[in-house]
Design brief:
440 residues, single chain, 11-stranded mixed β-sheet, 3-stranded antiparallel β-sheet
């Protein structure tokens, strides 16, 4: 799949192939991570329709009944409206929300809603100015429950939630002078999806079935230290309303959805004792076995008969071990994109080279991986391993660099000649050499 980004984040324009191994290299703050975050958001958005359609229905029921209540309150001078009217709409809301998941026929839904109304009818009709058309309310509730919302509406709501969590809602480039952005996906000449909009709005369309059914975004092994907290935290998708105040009433910690998604995948299945050729290689690098223990509610690293738990495990072991868990649990597969953001941050150069071998082996099996990096060791190792296997025809290298303005970046395909990557990454060595010569 070829994905084009225009005026997105810091990126002025980029065309990225996602098929096999995609490596985006460059300095910090040049838009590398933006590509992975947006691809994660898009893939997740298009694969959550059934779940998020329900959320959209819930939101519409809440808004409908809240609007009826506030409208009736405005028209009435009777203080009793506050007590009886609010109780009526709150109980009706509870009943309506419970019916969203029950898949009942229209007649039964109408009967249940009408029955709930009857218990309040006499009291409410006696209130001054409380004029509510009960048949109209029933009709609106039934319509919302029975009719699933349009895909584009659900996609829009879902994508904005991901964008808010991953990019603080800032999709468009703030410094380019234009307020609109465009992301398109296609396979050959066949359009797959389009995402476009202004900074705070989005139009999103799925033109044909998306190949990827899932995505995983791995940002940092440090997140594993908070696994138990993250597992029981809330995300944007747990909110039942559209105000932050309502979300805070849940008295739960909030984390971005991509973080909880990762932790739930790593703690979802028992992998202790399971082996594959990939995990044998990983265990050989780290010198032991890494797994999640549901009884301890923490990660464990067993090495030479000794157990290390949680924060006592080094980040490098967690990173490699987590990749092994994702693989054994079935989350690294051909139709699922794995995004790993700057893994070298936690790996010694020797482990970076061996990690490159693992990555190339995963791609050789038919998996798709997007990796961002600014490590010459990792990038060179990936290049050599991909040529040796060979999976070089399914490996693409991209160079991300800022333009003169320092606020706009461009990502170019350098697969045929990756020297521009090393020229930039070698610049610090050249500066150090100049300092040495100056001292001499």
């Amino acid at each position: 799949m070829q994905v084009t980004f225009k005026n997105t984040g810091m990126i002025e324009e980029a065309g990225i192939d996602i098929d096999g191994l995609t490596v985006i290299a460059g300095e910090n703050d040049t838009g590398k991570s933006t590509v992975g975050k947006l691809l994660f958001s898009i893939i997740k958005t298009f694969n959550r329709y059934e779940r998020d359609a329900r959320f959209y229905q819930v939101l519409n029921i809440k808004r409908l009944l809240d609007n009826y209540y506030f409208d009736s309150r405005k028209k009435s001078n009777d203080p009793s409206v506050l007590e009886f009217g609010n109780a009526f709409f709150q109980q009706l809301k509870t009943v309506a929300l419970s019916l969203v998941d029950e898949n009942k026929p229209k007649e039964e839904i109408e009967s249940i809603v009408s029955e709930k109304m009857k218990s309040f009818t006499d009291a409410l009709l006696g209130l001054s100015g409380f004029n509510v058309n009960f048949e109209e309310i029933t009709g609106h509730i039934v319509d919302i429950i029975l009719k699933k919302p349009a895909q584009e509406n659900v996609f829009q709501l879902t994508f904005l939630k991901y964008a808010n969590a991953l990019l603080s809602g800032d999709i468009a480039n703030k410094f380019s002078g234009g307020g609109n952005y465009l992301i398109t996906g296609k396979e050959g000449n066949i359009p797959i999806f389009t995402v476009s909009g202004a900074p705070s709005s989005v139009d999103i369309d799925l033109h044909d079935r998306l190949y990827f059914e899932d995505a995983t975004f791995f940002e940092s092994p440090a997140l594993l230290n908070l696994a138990d907290t993250i597992r029981f935290s809330k995300t944007e998708f747990d909110k039942t309303g559209d105000t932050k105040q309502e979300a805070e009433l849940l008295e739960k910690a909030y984390v971005p959805e991509y973080i909880r998604d990762l932790i739930l995948k790593l703690t979802d299945q028992k992998t202790k004792g399971k082996q594959s050729e990939i995990t044998k290689k990983i265990n050989g690098i780290i010198g032991g076995e890494f797994y999640y223990d549901p009884d301890l509610r923490d990660f464990v690293f067993e090495k030479q008969g000794q157990k290390f738990i949680g924060v006592s495990i080094t980040p490098g072991v967690k990173l490699l071990g987590a990749v092994g868990i994702l693989y054994l649990s079935g989350f690294i597969k051909s139709n699922s994109l794995l995004v790993i953001d700057e893994p070298e941050t936690h790996l010694h150069p020797q482990w970076q080279v061996r990690f490159a071998d693992i990555i190339v082996q995963l791609v050789k099996e038919g998996n798709s991986i997007l990796l961002t990096s600014h490590s010459p060791y990792l990038i060179e190792a990936i290049k050599l391993y991909s040529d040796f296997e060979p999976v070089n025809k399914k490996t693409n290298f991209y160079f991300s660099e800022v333009k003169e303005s320092q606020f706009i970046s461009h990502i170019s395909n350098v697969t045929d000649d990756i020297s521009p990557i090393f020229e930039v990454l070698a610049a610090p060595y050249e500066k150090l050499e100049m300092l040495q010569l100056k001292d001499v």
